[in-house]
Design brief:
The protein is built from 26 helices and 21 strands. The protein is an alpha/beta fold. A hairpin with a 2-residue loop joins strand 9 and strand 10. It is elongated. The chain binds ligand C2E and calcium ion (2 copies).
Length: 713
């Protein structure tokens, strides 16, 4: 092929061609690509112009290349043709090439459009297919989800008309679709609906909120109640207007019932079924929340008299039955009057008068409590006469706090007990301030032992025959930093309840036995026997025998010089555990005496089976042997009978509460062995006992010391 065009022409054409392409769609191409396309097509066109053949494959190729490179604008074609016409070539050659170029360009463009359309169509078709498939799938998924969901789902419009319900919801309501469809959501009310549920519902259907959740009961079609956890969501239309509501309804009946049961358990005493301490405080505290200015309430703090004795001697089961019977009586008598009766624990009950009119009403309730409990209880074949003491308080809500009111009522009860059993006592602020709070005691007790606040006094037990010092009883005291010296009656029962009696009792044993051993070292046989009281709980402690033998060993005291005083309840308890321990102690040479005999429930014959060698007759009998001897008082006859029976069993008898010379004389004439009481000496510090041993003389005035029968031991 020849090259008829000059190089200048060639360069001009190429440049002009490049500019042409660049001015059009070529701007969209990266410059290197544009240069390449322009160079290649210019070359093809130039060679085609120079050619001679009738067919123009080079021009066709150039056109196809351009369309491929997206030069599809018809403007370009027009300019390209104009440019070709500026070129010099063989006559007619420009027209041929231009025509061929234009035709090829159009053909390439058409082909390309077709290709594109096809793939668009294919794509469109595929897209529609895909969309339909997805829609069907999601619709099916939705149906499956809706219909077979484990949770109940219902749909309603915003007027509350139910449109659709799924299977779970039908089952939950025990209903068919047609029973529910068309019904109004607002008809499904239940008296126990939580406050605010229907307000939340209104807010939702009005579009003021998008969701709410609550626990709600529904009536099933069969009338049963089903508890549900409900979530209602609002579905809005395109413009945000409320359209539908969807409710997810979960059956929580079982959970709810369990919760109810737990709540009941948490607020009720399992033994008596009465509201418990927590429930009582909840009710009491509620009174203080938003009180009327002159709102009043009353408290009757009730404690059974002698319950401990029943519990200890007849066993916990009987004790429990008694408590349940007491609770039932109180409940029947007081609850119908609108008062709350609760069990605070142990044998303590409380009556709350929520709208108390004043002290008279509270006192009337206290009297009712006392008469209600006055009739004996028949429990497990026993006729149990048990009384109660009541602390009464009526106050305005404004004047106190729940905690202070309960403490005040408790203190009032405590004062009531102190002044004698079976009575009520009205709250008196000045008296209460002085009374020792059992509460304060229980708080302080645990640290008192560590801080050395306890000490032991010793009270003489003298032979009634000659007034000589036979034994001393160790009596514990507590030097309380606020309340001064407290007697055991004020803290021993609390120590028993809290378990502190174990370490405290051990400490008393160490102290008393150590003291007795010291007296033996100093005074030999003139030293008295040591009597130590054992609390019931201590007597039942399996470690007791070890503790005592260890203490005896380390002090060097002869076991025969130790006597343990136990109450009847300790030996008559249901467990024979304690019996074994007491037997082991007796075998070791330690003697045992039954304390406060006559106040409990045992009979004398029972003592025959016990390893007991002494009997202490409660002071109450002795003080009843009083005054002129013309008529024989009952106590007198009882003591006489007891002494002869006890002697028949081989027991040494000690009379307590010997306060006068007459007491001592009478008791001696009855054959009683030893006496203890103010007359023979009050509980004193150990030095005082040592002084008496040293002086060695009788407790009787010289003229009266007539020796008769000595104590058995
Ligand atoms: P209890 O074993 O009957 O002790 C005798 C109580 O009677 C002592 O009271 C004593 O002070 C008092 N008393 C003595 N003579 C007379 C009298 O002539 N007339 C009157 N009215 N009372 C007299 P205390 O020291 O207050 O002890 C009370 C109770 O506390 C004791 O009664 C005993 O059951 C218990 N207790 C004392 N010390 C201990 C102890 O170390 N451990 C245990 N577990 N209980 C103890
Ligand atoms: Ca005693
Ligand atoms: Ca006693």
């Amino acid at each position: 092929m020849t090259e008829p065009m000059s190089p200048v022409d060639t360069r001009d054409f190429t440049e002009a061609w490049y500019r042409l392409l660049r001015s059009g769609q070529g701007l969209a191409l990266p410059p290197p690509t544009l240069a390449q396309v322009a160079g290649r097509t210019a070359e093809l066109l130039r060679r085609s112009l120079a050619g001679t053949a009738a067919d123009t494959p080079l021009a066709d190729e150039a056109a196809a290349l351009l369309v491929d490179a997206h030069f599809t604008d018809p403007e370009i074609l027009a300019h390209a043709v104009a440019l070709l016409h500026t070129q010099r070539a063989a006559p007619g050659r420009v027209a041929v090439v231009s025509g061929a170029f234009a035709a090829a360009w159009a053909a390439a463009l058409r082909e390309r459009t077709l290709r594109e359309q096809e793939s668009i169509q294919r794509a469109a078709f595929a897209a529609r297919e895909e969309a339909e498939r997805a829609w069907r799938a999601s619709e099916a998924r939705f149906r499956a989800l809706f219909e077979h969901a484990a949770i109940g789902i219902g749909m309603a419009d915003v007027n509350g008309t139910i449109l659709q319900v799924n299977q779970a919801l039908r089952e939950l309501f025990c209903a068919r679709s047609e029973d529910l469809r068309g019904r109004r959501v607002t008809d499904l009310v239940h008296p126990e609906d939580a406050p605010g549920v229907w307000e939340a519902y209104e807010d939702l259907v009005q579009g003021r909120r998008d969701r709410f959740t609550c626990d709600k009961p529904y009536y099933r079609r069969d009338g049963e109640v089903v508890w549900t956890h409900l979530t209602v969501s609002l579905i809005r239309g395109e413009n945000g207007e409320p359209r539908y509501q969807v409710a997810m309804v979960e059956d929580i009946t079982d959970r709810y019932r369990l919760q109810e049961r737990l709540r009941h358990q948490a607020t009720h005493d399992p033994l008596t079924g009465l509201p418990n301490r927590a429930a009582f405080f909840e009710r009491l505290e509620a009174l203080f929340e938003e009180p009327q200015p002159d709102a009043r309430f009353g408290l009757c703090y009730v404690d059974l008299d002698g319950f401990k004795v029943v519990n200890d001697s007849l066993g916990h089961e009987t004790g429990d039955q008694l408590l349940a019977a007491v609770a039932e009586r109180l409940d029947c008598a007081l609850t119908p009057l609108g008062h709350l009766v609760a069990r605070l624990g142990g044998d303590e009950f409380v009556v709350l008068l929520e709208n108390c009119r004043g002290e008279e009403e509270a006192v009337a309730v206290a009297k009712l409590v006392l008469t209600t409990l006055a009739r004996p209880f028949l429990i497990a074949g026993h006729k149990l006469a048990i009384g109660a003491s009541v602390g009464v308080l009526a106050r305005t809500v404004a004047a106190t706090t729940p905690g202070a009111a309960v403490r005040a009522a408790d203190l009032t009860l405590y004062r009531s007990k102190e002044s004698g059993r079976g009575r009520w006592t009205l709250f008196d602020p000045t008296q209460n301030a002085r009374a020792v709070s059992r509460y304060a005691i229980s708080v302080r007790l645990p640290v008192a032992l560590d801080r050395g606040e306890f000490f032991v006094d010793y009270q003489p037990l003298c032979a009634l025959s000659d007034g000589s010092l036979a034994a001393v009883e160790a009596l514990v005291r507590w030097r309380h930093p606020q309340f001064g010296v407290l007697g055991p009656d004020e803290f021993v029962s609390t120590a028993e309840e809290t378990g502190l009696i174990m370490p405290l009792g051990r400490w008393i044993l160490e102290r008393a036995i150590g003291q007795a051993a010291e007296w033996v070292r100093r005074f030999g046989d003139a030293a008295p026997q040591i009597n130590v009281n054992l609390a019931v709980r201590q007597a039942r402690n399996p470690g007791l025998v070890n503790d005592i033998t260890r203490i005896l060993d380390s002090s060097g005291l002869d076991p025969r010089r130790l006597q343990l005083e136990i109450t009847e309840s300790a030996v008559i308890g249901p467990e024979d555990e304690s019996l074994r321990a007491l037997q082991a102690l007796a075998d070791a040479g330690v003697s045992l005496a039954v304390d406060d005999f006559g106040t409990g429930w045992s009979n004398l014959a029972y003592l025959r089976n016990l390893p007991v060698s002494g009997l202490k007759i409660a002071g109450a009998f002795v003080s009843d042997t009083h005054e002129d001897g013309t008529e024989e008082p009952v106590g007198w006859r009882i003591v006489g009978g007891l002494v002869s029976l006890a002697h028949a069993l081989g027991l040494t008898v000690t009379a307590e509460g010997v306060e006068t010379p007459q007491h001592a004389r009478w008791l001696r004439s009855l054959g009683c062995d030893w006496g203890q009481g103010w007359y023979f000496g009050r509980p004193v510090a150990p030095q005082e006992i040592a002084r008496r041993i040293t002086e060695g003389h009788s407790a009787y005035p010289a003229s009266k010391s007539e020796a008769k029968s000595g104590p058995k031991s």
